[in-house]
From TrEMBL:
<feature type="domain" description="Carbohydrate kinase FGGY C-terminal">
    <location>
        <begin position="256"/>
        <end position="426"/>
    </location>
</feature>
<keyword id="KW-0119">Carbohydrate metabolism</keyword>
<dbReference type="InterPro" id="IPR043129">
    <property type="entry name" value="ATPase_NBD"/>
</dbReference>
<keyword id="KW-0067">ATP-binding</keyword>
<dbReference type="GO" id="GO:0004856">
    <property type="term" value="F:D-xylulokinase activity"/>
</dbReference>
<keyword id="KW-0418">Kinase</keyword>
<protein>
    <recommendedName>
        <fullName>Xylulose kinase</fullName>
        <ecNumber>2.7.1.17</ecNumber>
    </recommendedName>
</protein>
<keyword id="KW-0547">Nucleotide-binding</keyword>
<dbReference type="Pfam" id="PF00370">
    <property type="entry name" value="FGGY_N"/>
</dbReference>
<feature type="domain" description="Carbohydrate kinase FGGY N-terminal">
    <location>
        <begin position="9"/>
        <end position="245"/>
    </location>
</feature>
<feature type="site" description="Important for activity">
    <location>
        <position position="13"/>
    </location>
</feature>
<dbReference type="InterPro" id="IPR050406">
    <property type="entry name" value="FGGY_Carb_Kinase"/>
</dbReference>
<feature type="binding site">
    <location>
        <begin position="81"/>
        <end position="82"/>
    </location>
    <ligand>
        <name>substrate</name>
    </ligand>
</feature>
<feature type="active site" description="Proton acceptor">
    <location>
        <position position="238"/>
    </location>
</feature>
<dbReference type="Pfam" id="PF02782">
    <property type="entry name" value="FGGY_C"/>
</dbReference>
<dbReference type="InterPro" id="IPR006000">
    <property type="entry name" value="Xylulokinase"/>
</dbReference>
<dbReference type="InterPro" id="IPR018485">
    <property type="entry name" value="FGGY_C"/>
</dbReference>
Length: 476
């Protein structure tokens, strides 16, 4: 192994499915060591995980990095957004965490929107209109359905907050992840007492919001192979970390294809979309990260492939089938009680055409919001950055090119969330903007795919099915 040119840093991605750790040379961006360990998620009506499993997985992932992790000078944790972690007075979980894709809180989200004065009030006051994924709705659900658990809660954390606190012993969060709760107001950059009162949550249960570039603490003695006193950055949510990992400048569109799908771009203007399609999130640097999220992306498409016994790349063109892959309900469009819908079948429809229709439906959900995510003065010819687990799949690439009519760039760098966390940790040491660190590392280098003629007919057919199908699913 060659000698590192700069100090070593560790970036951690604690996602829905696993914990991933990268040891990175802060000077060059070279990944020195990696580790990974799985998470457990419940199935059924809810989506929950025990936060202690996240810590065990993080520990295992870091240990798999070997001695390099012990030499790291700084560490940062990025985590799945929105999850509700409730801790008792001893710091132990009161119950399993309610994850971002647990939609049981949809009725509470609708009620909160109405009680504060409607979507426009939320957009202006908070920056986002809360849906079932938002932490505020999850706390309202907990208070209504499990009041004893709510009363036993002495601290409320997000997933990355919980892990950072296990490292440092201090309750902290950052503006990027806090902006996804529904109780952090973008215009004021502070917790909103009116919303907290509305949901019955004591401000004293919430963590301190650490400013961009500020140290959250240092590693305390414990189970991890970090040196005691290693600097710990604020960390952030997974999408904000990926934006850091890409070194995003305003106006560049990003589509992230994972368990969920996201469309986002950095903006210098605070977004406020009263339709709720675009969440007005803050980024981890001081700008904004307008973002639209779908619940059904690669996992839904892979499920369709499995049903037909097909390889995920075995798509076929043509046909009239339309598939709405809302297997877990949907967030964009806002149909939390929806299910998958297949229509337009003919005698000659093939399984491969139905699989292509699943790709089309998943991508359409994201592209429907892309125009709202981007500022009006954004360059329409700017390549789309395609990231996430699906980004290297030919069928995903071709579908995005066909439905957008834009060129597509696929960064070679893997694990952009963990890389973004590593860039944040490196920024603590060098004093640089973490996005500038990532640009110096060349994280967006990769093949540029030319645009294809936009398939307007397919886009219009899917839009028509979505419009006509909304009445099929009761609100519940």
């Amino acid at each position: 192994m060659s000698t590192a040119e700069g100090p070593l840093v560790v970036g951690i991605d604690s996602s829905t499915q696993s914990a991933k750790a990268l040891v990175v040379d802060a000077g060059t961006g070279r990944v020195v060591a990696t580790g990974q360990a799985p998470h457990r998620v419940t199935t059924g009506t809810g989506r929950e995980s025990d936060p202690r499993d996240w810590w065990s997985a993080l520990t295992e992932a870091v240990r798999a990095c070997g001695p390099a992790a012990h030499r790291a000078a700084a560490v940062s944790v990025a985590g799945q957004q929105h999850g509700l972690v409730t801790l008792d007075a001893d710091g132990s979980p009161v119950r399993p965490a309610l994850l971002w894709n647990d939609v049981r809180s949809a009725p509470q989200a609708r009620r909160l929107v109405a009680e504060l004065g409607g979507p426009q009030v939320w957009a202006d006051r908070i920056g986002s209109v809360p849906g079932a994924s938002f932490t505020a709705a999850k706390w309202a659900w907990l208070a209504e359905h499990e009041p004893e658990a709510a009363r036993a809660t002495a601290a409320v954390r997000l997933p990355h907050d919980y892990l950072t606190e296990r490292l440092t012993g201090h309750g902290t969060t950052d503006r990027g992840d806090a902006s996804g709760t529904g109780w952090w107001a973008g215009p004021k950059e502070a917790y909103d007492d009116t919303v907290l009162e509305l949901i019955g949550l004591d401000r004293g249960l919430l963590p301190k919001v650490v400013a961009p570039g500020e140290v959250a603490g240092t590693v305390r003695e414990g189970e991890l192979p970090f040196a005691r006193g290693t600097l710990v950055a604020a960390g952030t949510g997974d999408n904000a970390a990926a934006a850091l990992g890409l070194g995003l400048r305003p106006g560049t569109p990003v589509l992230s294809l994972g368990t969920s799908g996201t469309a986002y771009a950095v903006s210098t203007r605070r977004p406020a979309d009263p339709t709720g399609t675009v969440a007005g999130f803050a980024d981890a640097r001081g700008d904004w990260l307008p973002l639209a999220c779908t619940l059904n992306c690669t996992q839904a498409v892979d499920r369709v492939a499995a049903l037909f016994g097909l390889d995920r790349e075995a798509v076929e063109p043509g046909g009239s089938a339309t598939f709405l892959p809302y297997l877990d309900g949907e967030r964009t469009p806002n149909l939390p009680h929806a299910s998958g819908l297949l229509t337009g079948l003919r005698h000659d429809t093939t399984p491969g055409q139905i699989l292509q229709a699943a790709y089309d439906g998943a991508v359409h959900s994201l592209l429907d919001a892309l125009g709202l995510v981007l500022d009006t003065d954004a360059d329409p010819a700017e390549p789309v950055l395609l990231i996430g687990g699906g980004a290297r799949g030919t069928a995903w690439q071709e579908t995005v090119r066909r439905l957008t009519g834009r060129p597509v760039r696929v960064p070679r760098a893997a694990e952009l969330v963990a890389l973004g966390a590593a860039a944040q940790a490196a920024g603590l040491l060098t004093g640089e903007d973490p996005a500038a660190v990532a640009r110096r590392w060349g994280t967006t280098d990769g093949p540029l795919l030319d645009p294809l003629p936009r398939d307007a007919a397919t886009a219009e057919r899917i839009a028509g099915v979505v419009e006509g199908a909304g009445t099929l699913w009761a609100e519940g």
